[in-house]
Structures are given as C-alpha cells and as structure tokens.
Amino acid sequence: MGFENFTAEQLNALNDEYLPRRTVGNAKAEVYLNAATERSADFRDRQDGVLDVAYGDTALQTVDIFPAASPGSPVLIFIHGGYWRSLDKDVYSEIAEPFVAAGATVVLPNYDLCPTVTVPEIVDQIRTCLKWVHYNIGDYNGDPGNLYLSGHSAGGHLTGMMMATDWQGSYGLPADLLKGAIPLSGLFDIEPHRHTELQETIRLTAETAAANSPQKLNILSTCPVLCAVGGGESEEFHRQSREFAEKCKTHGLACDYMDLGTDNHFDITNRLHDPDDPLVRAILKLMGL
After folding, report:
1. 85 burial level (CB within 10 Å; 0-12, 13-18, 19+)
2. Which residues, 6 or more positions from 149, have their beta carbon under 8 angstroms from its beta carbon?
C-alpha cells in the first residue's frame, strides 16, 4: 500500500518515526541545541576562525572555516541538519575543535532553507559549496585533494547526494573529489517526507523526491563511507542508514555502520566535540589522523 493510501493513524505513526521532536520532546530537543549553541559560541571565542565567507550569491550561502595549523591538511566539511528548513552552522562550530586539534581544516556551510528554496536548490547550493572549497581551501591550510564530507540528518541526505554527483562530468572537478563520507542519521529516501508534516514546508513532488533520494541513485563516489545512527532513534532512521550502507557496499565501497549506544537524534551530534568519543575516533581514523 502506498503512502497515499495511509490511514490517519498510519500517517500519525509515520510522523512519529520521522519527526524526532515528537519522541524526544521539544523541550528536551531545545536543551540539546541550546547547549551545543553555547559550546559553539565559546569555541568561536577561543579559536581563530574565518567566519561567513561567501561561496554563493545569497546571504546564507556562506561557510565558517577553522584552519589547520599546517598547510596541506585534510579537510572535514560538516553539513548541519534541520530537515532542510531550520538550524544554522553556528550551532555546530564546536565539532571543529577535536578535528582542528588533530590536524584538519574544518568547514561548516550554511545554505538557504525551505520554503524560501526547494530541496533540489539546496542540493545545488551544497554542490556549489564543495566546488568553492576545492578551489579555495588551500588558502586555509586545507588540501583540495583530501576532502571528507559529513552531515547530520538532512545534512546526511545532502552528503549522500554529493556521493551521487558527477563531479568530473558536470563540474570539471576530480571524479574522486570526496575521499571519505560520513552521513549521520541520514535520510536517503525522502519520499516518505511528502506524507509527513514537513511537506507543507519542503513541498516535494514525486519527481523531486525520486531525483533527490540517494538510495534511488547511482553512487558515483568511490570513497570509504561511515554510516552512523543513534541506537535510540526510530526504526525508520535505522532502516534508512542500514539500507544506504548496504547500497554503498553493493557499489563496491568500503562501508562501516555504527549503531551508537542509546543516542536519540540529538545525542549523536553531541559526540562530535569529544576527541575521545568512538565516533570522533572513527572519523579521525577514516581521515588518516
């Protein structure tokens, strides 16, 4: 039975599966996000960073860059989530700390949000961002030939879409632009969101959902992949990450899957500021640091 034929009860259950604030609770989610925002502001006060550098032609097409100490360092790009409609890179500055300390340059992009733009337009903005990083990151001690991409939730979706991009044919960039991909709690088949409460804001059609679902596209990247999901997240979040990890393997990619403790959808990003966390250590290992 297709989503169009779901009963009201089934649609309510679908929303429960895909909208973490329903299960975690708005108040608890805000506690997580506010704490991350405060830690991130503190990190920006302590760390030399280059903030709000334009990569595109709208106000939100900017990146924050935290350069490594040495030229030619690997680069970690982290895309924030928020279901394509909310949040900001400022919430996640803190994740740069352990990676800069380990010898990486870290880039955090913003992008325009729905309903001002559509999901396909956001995908194109992130492609533009990666192109900008390739050509400019050398000015910030980064190695353009050593780019690693991560993102959480909608940022995980965007990570998957970058893995399905023909960098050489469409952008004149190296086919192996990405040297590693780390989607966290990602959304790889976005068709279900045409039928959740998100649809009013993200306005997907059947065509745009299919064309922007990494699970349904050819994976063109050949890099190693680390898919992670919180152990306490819904079955749908687990299913999406498991199936994408299997897809990566069928495309011949080395792919590890991490099911992290009892983490909910917001816990998982809290790990990223801790240099001793198993997820951070796994990402550093993937980056050769």
Report:
1. middle
2. 76, 77, 79, 130, 159, 162, 178, 180, 181, 182
Q: At 102, which CATH number?
A: 3.40.50.1820
CA distance 287 to 289: 6
Residue 161 belongs to domain spanning: 3-286
pLDDT digits (tens, 9 = 90+) for 216-236: 999 999 999 999 999 999 999
User: How many separate domains does the chain show?
Assistant: 1
pTM: 0.97
Crossing angle of helices 8-18 and 235-250, rounded to 10°: 70
DSSP per-residue string spanning 225-283: EEEEEETTS-HHHHHHHHHHHHHHHHTT--EEEEEETT--TTHHHHGGG-TTSHHHHHH
Residues 256, 22 contacting (CB under 8 angstroms): no
3-state secondary structure of 204: coil
